[in-house]
Structures are given as structure tokens and as C-alpha cells.
Amino acid sequence: MSVLLYYVIFVIFLKFCLFKESNSQFCYTDPTCGPATWPGVCTTGGMQSPINFDGMDTTVAFLPSNFRHVWENLPIAKNFLILNAGHTVEVLFPPGQEPKLKGSAIGLPGEYTFAQLHFHWGTSDTGGSEHTLFGKQYALEMHMVHYATPYGSYAAASVAPNDPNAVAILAIFFEISPVNNVALIPITKAIPLVRRFNRSQEIDVTGFLNLKNLLPAHLNFYRYEGSLTSPDCHENRVWTVFKQPVKISKQQMKQFRTVFDDRGEIIVENHRPLQARNGRPITFYFVTESLFDKILKFFTAYLSAWKEILLFPFQFLGNPTLFTLSFGRKLE
Ligand SMILES: [Zn+2]
């Protein structure tokens, strides 16, 4: 009898654990665990991500810096770690080799350490990104997550109160192209290794990864304060969303659509719906090195020409003798 009692207690305990486990999971398309059911600040927060950029009430700023040198050290790895996080594919640098991001290069204070990058995608090439640009959704969006180095870890920075710059995320849109994105090949080739979800299993992949080559050619970006786009939707995230999309081939895109989530189902639409802006300021940073130099040269030449034109009459008024002499020479 007592054995049966223990068995019943064990089964109830097991069911309770499984129930807790399933409750802790989140998903995107199933109404029972989709975005509308996400708990806490996901529902109550006023600075949530993603948002649409429509140019309305957007401040324009210039960042004439060496933006190309956005990372302190070369953001290159000869081998990297890839894992199926249950709702996306994550890529990490080997411990101790994480690139350091120069805050000043993107208008932020201090230094940041690379934590991981991951992706959001859809079932078709016409949608999948989380942020949208004038209502346009791209096929894929990559998030490069960095934490402010003084916090020592992403986990510590992630829950830092009242620090809007604790976690910096660089977001890059991808649009379909006839040719492969060469910089992305090491990642798309490694995706089959993590097709099935296996909690905390990181696969060490030999492959050349260069974060810099994953950035668009034109580095103009939108900046705003938002949140993580999946539970627990922590705020205090500063977003840098590049305006220009980079390329990805159809074949590369297909690799993402073969990945299974932590419920054993293909990840089909792992992007959160747009959130209310709630009057948050957005700044569009115009960042161009060569063009900035050209503009600077143009204005220098332009001002110089106008100076000549404007000062032309004054030189005669100020020196009549010179005028006479000049005039006389012209008549000869
Ligand atoms: Zn993300």
C-alpha cells in the first residue's frame, strides 16, 4: 500500500514538474504559448521591442568616426560555437576570444563585450525580421548581443536596473539575393549540426567567422531604447538597427527553416510582433567616412568660392589705387 502511495506521489510530482516545464516555455505561433501569453514585462513594459521605423519624429545625427573600426580587436574566430537555443540558432566565440565593441564608434559610452549572435526568420522570403523599415519586413534579422564590459558577464548586465546602456544589440536585416553571402557561409554550413534541440549542447565548429564582414556596406543606423524580443523581455537594451540590408541566398535561407524548436517542431516564424513605440525617441545616425569627407571638402570649397565672390567688391572699395591699376591693366 505504501509503495502505491509513493508511486502516486511520484507521478503527481512528475506531472507538476512537466507542467512547470511546459509553462516556462514560450513559442511564437501557438496561441497557448504565443506572444500574447508571454508574462511579466513582456505584457506590462512600456519600452518593448521590436518597433517599426517610419521616419516620423526621428532626430538625425552625424557620427563622423572611424566606424569601420567598431570592434577593438579583430572580430575574427577560426573556430566558433553554435547551438540550438530552442527557439533560434545561436553563435558564440570561444571563451576568452570574445570581440570587444568600441562604444564611442556607435555613439555609446565605454566598451562592450560580444555575448552571442542569433537569428529571427519566417516561412517565406517576404517576412521574418522583427523590426520593420517603413513597414517592410525582411527575410531574416540577425542580433549581435553585447554587454557593457564592466558588468563582467551578460547575465549580470542583463538584469542591471536603471542602466539603458547595459546591453547593446546590433541588428542587421537580410534580403534575398541570387548569390550566397560569403561571410555567412560558416554559419549556414554549421546549421545542420544543431538542427535538433539539445539543451546546452554547444558544437565547436572549425570555420572562419568575421563579424565585421556581416555588417552592411553603409553603416547608417537607427538608435532607440527597447527590450529583449523574447521572454523575459527585459528592458534596458540599447538598439542599433542598421538601415541597409545585407544579402542572403535562397539556399542559405532554407537552412534556417530546417531547425527544430524545444517542442520538437520546425521553427517557422520566430519573430515577435511589433510593439508600441510609446513616444520613445529615435535617432537616425548618418555614418559615412568617405562621403563625410567628400561633404566636408565640398563645403570647404563652396565656402571658399563664396568668400572670394563676397569679398570681391570690398577689395576695390578698400583700395581705390589697386582698382585703378587693375582696371588699367585690363584695358591694355
Ligand atoms: Zn533576437
TrEMBL record:
The keyword Thylakoid is annotated on this UniProt entry: no
Protein family per UniProt: Belongs to the alpha-carbonic anhydrase family.
SUPFAM superfamilies: Carbonic anhydrase (SSF51069)
Protein source organism: Folsomia candida (Springtail)
Keyword Nucleus: no
Keyword vocabulary terms for this entry: Lyase, Metal-binding, Signal, Zinc
Protein name: Carbonic anhydrase
Positions of the Alpha-carbonic anhydrase domain: 24-286
